[in-house]
Amino acid sequence: MRLLPLAAGTALAMSLAHAVAAATPAEVIETYGDIAVAAYGDSLTAARDLQAAVYAFLAAPSAEGLDAARTAWIAARAPYQQTEVFRFGNPVVDDWEGKVNSWPLDEGLIDYVDESYGGATDENELAALNVIANPQLTIAGRDVDATRITPELIADTLDQADGIESNVARGYHAVEFLLWGQDLNGHAPGAGNRPWTDFATGADCTNGNCDRRADYLKAATDLLVEDLGWMAAQWAEGGSAREVVAANPQAGLGAVLKGMGSLSYGELAGERMRLGLMLNDPEEEQDCFSDNTYNSHYYDGLGIQNVYLGRYVRIDGSTVEGPGLRDLVAAADPALDGEITAKLDATMAALGALKAAGDGGLSYDTMLEAGNAKGEELIMAGVDALVDQTHSFERAIGALGLEAVAFEGSDSLDSPDAVFQ
Amino acid sequence: MRAALLLSILASPALAGVDEAVDQHLLPGVQSFAEAAEALARTAADDCTAGAVRPALQPVWDAWVAIGDLRIGPTEAGALSIAFWPDERGAGARALKAMIASEDQAGRDPAAFADVSAAARGLPALDLLLGDPDLSGYAAGSYTCDLVRTVATDLAAQAEALSENWTTEAQALTTAGEGSNAAYLSDDEAFRAIYTQILSGLEFTADTRLGRPLGDADRPRPTRAEAWRSGRPLPNALGSVEASVHTAELLAGAPLPKTEAALDQVRRAGAAIRDPSFQDIEDPTARLKVEILQQRIRALLDIVEAEVGSPRGLQPGFNSRDGD
């Protein structure tokens, strides 16, 4: 028993830092699950708002209707990005996540693209398939009837077609592409500028196949709502995703920290931020059609902080809170808790500066341009802070004794000879 | 009970081997890489045609895979513009072809070239320019010939900078736990940093270097192999594994008999592969041999964990390849 109740005489040590209640791993995992329920629930609510906006737009296409759908999409990203911290340590989430947030995508699979996009690539024969324009398709040598564009066609046939990851036919970014279209501004300001008439009926239709484009947008939006609904249910009491961490709360803490560290370092700092900068490609940004990337990075960072502090502010303004990881760390090593909270604050300050610049009109693809020192500084400040906080998460794993626990049941420890045939 | 036992091991100070891994593997390795890259640049300066440069590329790859998977310190970011791979959306080919089409001045100016897309620089760029039939037939005096010279010069400069920057990182790793060291607060942290890279390198070789070309059993993907135009898929896989084991032995500071035995299995599986470029893996027998190599590397990974990490109560930490 590593965490003694206050009555056992450790009150003095506990009074030193953050006001520490006698949090147990089970209580911390309970808060973690409650935040997940709330954040996935909010993601579902916001996706339903998006769905309502899409339906209204398609029922009577107009410029205002398209704007309303775009606004709803951007709003839907904020809670979802705060759930990304639940990835990486939890197979139920990891196996599902690609359905809703896969990126980057070869968007020519879905719809028309600019000539500069090119056609099929060495990696992807289907990069310019254009399902919307082609009711009859051939995918990896097989004929496909795409006369009706349905959630089933998208989910079972088009998404990840030919086993290629960038054939993303569903999720936020497929919907984003349909709402905005390609961003053809290069490093210059401006997002995708798809005309609302791409969804118009009759003679007003631009770029052809407006009815099929509308079918695709509706089907992809419906699928997104369905997928988020499934995941929200997996976090309810007794749900499969919650059980992964709740079955053994001490081991669950390892998954919590794995999610925090993997999202901070390899995924956000590495794959999404530094890599984009090094490729100097204006489309190497996660929300590349809408130019909403800075917000997505910000809310990813906030999600990590939420989990540590045990506190999440819902989209309706209410708060979910309870004992957080910080309570356990503070009890084990108050100085380390101070280090981690300070680094999380530093990350949010850096991502906040990025967000402020984005809200102020400096678009993320401009920041990525080779030689844009200001942009590079803003992005690298975020990268450095995210990498730095990851080192402290590793220390927390040690401070909470999680390595030893995680080794329980490991083949290589229990019987080293078993792995050596 | 077991948890308590491991915690007490964790607390023990003796995690020797960091100095040895740094001084006997990493530092000489980055130095060799810098020398090989410099030799390549000199060759290209003399004659930039593909036939002349190709032979000098092989030793650079060999030197790179000996250190390239140890992605800590300056290598973590440096690797992205030295060996950007996998390039799933063909960003390197796209950028290079655009430069050639427009005869972009940056292709003749190594300083300006340092600002182009990381995917268009370093070893993968040379694999493409020297190995792609559509690109490699260029004449002396052509734009592409100048571009090859520029890529090689830029690579040599990157390697030189890497080698210099490693002096600082080596200092940080070997003084872990000393008062002035903010990067590594204890020997454990330095040990774990290197240990993590050993495991992630092995995992990368099994899952990505071999996994990508293997594809599904009914759909192998030979052109997804790393630097296949330069004959590098097998030597890169084996070179990286050898480097991981060498580093592990130095780090452990003791013989690793089970690891050695598992490495021997990897070598045997490698020797059975006929085409080092994996371009024959659409043949099921050839594919199976690559799959066996992959299994042997995964087995080796488990054994390194059991023989190096577990006795010290260590699990790998986070690494830059953790994303999806």
- The termini of chain A sit apart by 37 Å
**Strand-residue proportion of chain B:** under 5%
If you consult CATH, what is the topology of chain A? A middle domain of Talin 1
Per DSSP, the total helix count of chain A is 16
Strand content of chain A: under 5%
Assigned CATH class of the largest domain in chain B: Mainly Alpha
Subunit arrangement of the protein? heterodimer
Order of helices and strands of chain B: HHHHHHHHHHHH
Number of helices of chain B: 12
Helix content percent band of chain B: 55-70%
* Strand order of the biggest β-sheet of chain A: 1-2
Net shape of chain A? globular
Low-confidence stretches of chain B: 1-14
Structural class of chain B: mainly alpha
What ranges of chain A have pLDDT less than 50 throughout 5 or more consecutive residues?
A: 1-17, 405-421
Provide mean pLDDT of chain B, rounded. Answer: 92
Say what the CATH topology of the largest domain in chain B is. Answer: A middle domain of Talin 1
List keywords for this structure.
heterodimer, A: 421 residues, mainly alpha, A middle domain of Talin 1, 57% helix, disordered N terminus, disordered C terminus, B: 324 residues, Four Helix Bundle (Hemerythrin (Met), subunit A)
Describe this structure in words.
The complex is a heterodimer of chains A (421) and B (324). Chain A is mainly alpha-helical. Chain A has a single domain, classed as M75 peptidase, HXXE motif (A middle domain of Talin 1). In chain A, 57% of the residues lie in helices and 3% in strands. In chain A, a hairpin with a 2-residue loop joins strand 1 (136-139) and strand 2. In chain A, helix 2 (25-59) crosses helix 9, helix 4 packs antiparallel against helix 7 and helix 6 packs antiparallel against helix 7 (210-234). Chain A is globular, with a radius of gyration of 23 Å. Chain B has 324 residues and is mostly helical. Chain B has 2 domains: 18-166, A middle domain of Talin 1 (Up-down Bundle); 181-312, Four Helix Bundle (Hemerythrin (Met), subunit A), CATH 1.20.120. Chains A and B meet through helix 9, helix 14, helix 15 and helix 16 of A and helix 1, helix 4, helix 5, helix 9 and helix 11 of B.
